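Hi all, posting the design record for the shared folder.

TITLE: backbone redesign
STEP: 1 of 1
STRUCTURE INPUT:
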């Protein structure tokens, strides 16, 4: 089974990934957890280029293609072989992130971004995707508690100006909501619930999946 997690920065998805991993491992399933961008030697190198704050000249087109390149490698090197061996594959972000962040967030041509994802992931389509939804003011609230040094390039761009940041995240969230309408595999979960409540909703979906 292939499970992906999506949401705005600071929505809490990484915590949920860990909890689900532990849950499945306790049930003696074979589980592989990956994070995007990254997950292979090549993809981790691309991740460093993508998230390095020194790369402030990166163009939107470059960004889109680097995410795509990183993902293409991950799909073929890790995801497809693991699914073939009947592993549970959990990915912290996947192609929906590119549609929401690059397509909607960076105002790129949505249809092209979607087509590019099809080319990149081919038949490695998630069985189920959890979109942990938090409002944009919650993102900013949680972000303000983190030291600037711990933020990556995407989180600090558009840099500084709060209204630009708000608009960017509003567009990304709109992208996710658009995908929720379009794709039955995506389950939207209220990210303001407690960690335990969210975990239980996720378990419920996994157990009832067929
Ligand atoms: P991530 O490592 O998930 O950061 P966090 O754990 O803080 O949520 O993702 C890094 C950043 O990359 C995040 O701001 C979202 C962005 N991103 C894209 O813009 N497009 C993509 O396709 C992916 C996978 C991530």
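Okay, here is what came back for every position:
SEQUENCE:
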């Amino acid at each position: 089974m292939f499970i992906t997690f999506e949401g705005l920065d600071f929505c809490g998805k990484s915590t949920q990934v860990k909890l689900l991993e532990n849950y499945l491992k306790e049930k003696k399933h074979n589980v592989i957890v990956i994070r995007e961008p990254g997950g292979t030697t090549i993809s981790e190198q691309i991740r460093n280029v993508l998230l390095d704050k020194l790369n402030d000249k990166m163009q939107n087109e470059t960004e889109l293609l680097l995410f795509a390149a990183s993902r293409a490698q991950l799909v073929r090197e890790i995801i497809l072989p693991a699914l073939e061996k009947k592993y549970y594959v959990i990915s912290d972000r996947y192609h929906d992130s590119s549609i929401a962040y690059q397509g909607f967030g960076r105002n790129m041509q949505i249809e092209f971004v979607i087509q590019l994802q099809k080319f990149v992931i081919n038949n490695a389509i998630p069985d189920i995707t959890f979109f942990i939804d938090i409002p944009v003011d919650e993102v900013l609230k949680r972000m303000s508690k983190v030291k600037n040094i711990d933020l990556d390039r995407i989180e600090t761009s558009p840099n500084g100006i709060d209204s630009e940041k708000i608009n960017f995240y509003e567009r990304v969230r709109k992208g996710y909501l658009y995908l929720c309408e379009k794709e039955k595999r995506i389950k939207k979960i209220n990210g303001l619930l407690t960690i335990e409540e969210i975990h239980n909703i996720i378990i419920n979906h996994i157990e009832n999946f067929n």
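COMMENT: The CA atoms of residues 51 and 154 lie 6 Å apart.
Let me know if anyone wants the other runs.
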